[in-house]
């Protein structure tokens, strides 16, 4: 089956998405943003935190309650 991998580095929040061709259209199989492991099993096994693509740690979440 054909696959394509989309890597998006816009806004310094890297995301990765894997799509598989199924009945003439690409459908999402796996996706993750910085701070969450991206895991795929096909067409080969691969795991990465998208934050590693920029050589940085995932952005810290804002604490609740404002400033």
Task: Report on the architecture of this protein.
- The chain is mainly β and 67 residues long.
- It has one domain (3-54).
- It contains no helices and five strands.
- It has a three-stranded antiparallel beta sheet with strand order 1-2-3, with no helix packed on it. The protein has a two-stranded antiparallel sheet with strand order 4-5.
Give the helix/strand layout:
Blueprint: E1 3-8, E2 15-22, E3 25-33, E4 38-40, E5 46-48
Antiparallel strand pairs: 1-2, 2-3, 4-5
Task: Describe the structure concisely.
With 67 residues, this protein is mainly beta. 0% of the residues lie in helices and 43% in strands.
The largest sheet, given as strand count, sense and whether it forms a barrel, is: 3 strands, antiparallel
Poorly predicted runs are: none
Q: Number of helical segments?
A: 0
Please tell me the total number of domains: 1
Radius of gyration using CA atoms only: 14 Å
Q: State the helicity in percent bands.
A: under 10%
Coarse structural class: mainly beta
Apparent shape: elongated
Distance between the termini: 49 Å
* Strands, total number: 5
Overall average residue pLDDT:
86
SSE arrangement, N to C = EEEEE
Question: Beta-sheet strand percentage?
Answer: 35-45%
Strand order of the largest sheet: 1-2-3
């Amino acid at each position: 089956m054909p696959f394509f991998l989309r890597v998006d580095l816009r806004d310094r929040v890297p995301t990765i998405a894997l799509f598989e061709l199924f009945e003439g259209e690409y459908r999402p199989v796996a996706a993750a943003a910085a701070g969450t492991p991206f895991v795929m099993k096909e067409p080969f096994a691969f795991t990465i935190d998208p934050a590693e693509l920029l050589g940085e740690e995932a952005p810290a979440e804002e604490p609740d309650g404002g400033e």
